[in-house]
Amino acid sequence: MGKMKAWVLEHPSPIGMKPLVKKDLEIPEPGPGEIRLKVITCGVCRTDIHIVEGDLPLRKASLVPGHEIVGIVDKIGRDATRFKLGQRAGIAWLHHACGHCKFCRSGRENLCPDAGFTGWDVNGGFAQYTTIHEDFAFVLPDSISFEALAPMMCPGIAGYRAYRLSKVKKGGILALYGYGPTASYVLQVAHARGIKVFVITRSEKNLNAAREMGADWVGNYRDTPPEKADAAILFPPAGNLVEEILANLERGGRLVLSPVTMTPITIQNYNHIWMERSIISLANISRTDGEEFLKIAQEVKIQSRYEIFGFDDLPEALIRVKEGKIKGNAVIWID
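User: That's the sequence. What structure does it adopt?
Assistant: Structure tokens below.
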């Protein structure tokens, strides 16, 4: 079968200790209905850091992280017919779902109790090759570069799901609290749908980035937005901001909580959530999210900001991502 290079996590520890080890592993073979990708690029996500550092418990021994995967189909398993050899394909966070539980049957496969996740339950993209069932791979456009596509596989798709959950309508106002790669995709999608976007963040660098992307208003947490928003998305895991955001929402407004974890949330004044204001958390993604987002990305030419690192530079890239020293997204070039 041959060997491939891969970054492997055996024991979670702080990123600064560089716990990933580069190893030679067997090149995986695609099973029935599966395809194998020769990985070209893989984005680096903060969820990867949570896994590597042990904030999310390790679910697999000798794990290869990475779930923003873009590659070329180089081998096709028995009974797989959706892709052709040499075709571009992408793999995101949702690696598989059962397909028959009440969540899967109702279009909510992101909530499937038996779902498996790329780079957490199964080996991911910090390697030269990886496999997935063809039904869970994304057909990728040739019009977008490999390096721009990689962050679309997570910040792009997750941002689009957060936007969908907000239920904001054309002509409405969407407030984004915190501004990073995921928020930048939300801003672009919202503008394409005729929605005004307010950005609230404490980072001057991120305020400038939001201005450059065309945000309709930007400010820090001490500033009062010019109008109440119809919906809001909170990106940092700061539960102390929830009540303040609710207080700045219009009647019937909805707050989407985007983080995987969150500090304690307290709502002391019932009036801030009264008038049918609501809170919903984002959990994972679905294939529909990815397919719809990739279509929009082509139609309106969604922009990705990224810095490219070589395969050997992954440990350093993880450190820089955690320290917030990346302009946009970190993308590992693996080919």
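DSSP finds eight helices and 17 strands in the chain.
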